[in-house]
Amino acid sequence: MSTPVPSAVSPRPDHKLSWPEAAALVVWMAVTLYWAITYSGPYRWLSEWQMRQFGHYLQFVSMGVPLLAGWGATALVLRRVLPARLHAGDASAGARTLVERFDGLLGAKAGAAAIFLLFAGLALHVRNEAASYGVLRQVTADDMAGPVASRWVEITGWPDTRSVTETKNGDEHVYFGLRSARDAADDALVPVFVEGRPEELADRVRRNMDGSVTIRGLVWRSMEAPVRRYMEEQGVKLALDPWVLNPLQTPEQQGRQAPWILGMGVVIAGGVWLRFRKRAG
After folding, report:
1. Contact predicate 166/173, CB 8 Å
2. What is the pLDDT of residues 115-152, one digit of tens each?
3. CA triple 223-165-255, angle to 5 deg
4. Closest by alpha carbon to 245, among 217, 205, 203?
5. Which of 90, 108, 150, 265 has the fewest CB atoms below 10 angstroms from its CB?
6. In whole angstroms, how far apart are CA 79 and each of 27, 71, 74, 83?
7. pLDDT tens digit sequence for 54-110
């Protein structure tokens, strides 16, 4: 009478997250947050699609759909496809042994290391991006209609009376354009916009004798869909992807974010390591 031989890889008896699934969730959260902060990727596409369809957009939808879709697909592969292939004998005994080892203490170490490397890479990207902004350049609003030599600028232009006020995280933000000339036609292209809270702008906008203003900050191509729509409804002519100046940001401030990002990676990686070390033990 023979004794049944248990399978090398058996289905997981519960629905707890494995370390690869937890690591994948952290990765997708970090990537989605990056898209939201930079107003890029699927976050931007979904926001602008909602604006076209409904006239407004919900941030939790723009963030939640990419996060759930990306992590859900990754978790499905990790939980269903790979174990099924191993169970069906599509891998060698050595590969199955490796998977079993990575589902224990070694896996906890690898997961923590992967998360730390993700945040270390993000911190390096932030530091390198801050270094790439260039030296401070004094430019006019008209100069911003073409290629720019630096994203760290001090711009002089004439403020457009048409503006948009939007609430972000409970704070009121004002957007207004800088025109190339005081007597520019209403349908002339407005090449650059300023964003900030009214009390902050009052301290940072320097008013000149000829009616123009000068303001210093970093510029990004990051105008959000609702602001663009409200500007267009007022007859403002915008570039396809206009510059937006943030007077609160400097390259030095951006660079100082890198250690904080790295520290966050250490904390999260340590949490994953402790959580799955206990389970493996």
Report:
1. yes
2. 788 888 888 888 888 888 888 899 999 888 877 888 89
3. 50
4. 217
5. 90
6. 17, 12, 9, 7
7. 766 677 788 889 888 888 888 888 777 655 544 444 445 544 454 454 555 556 677
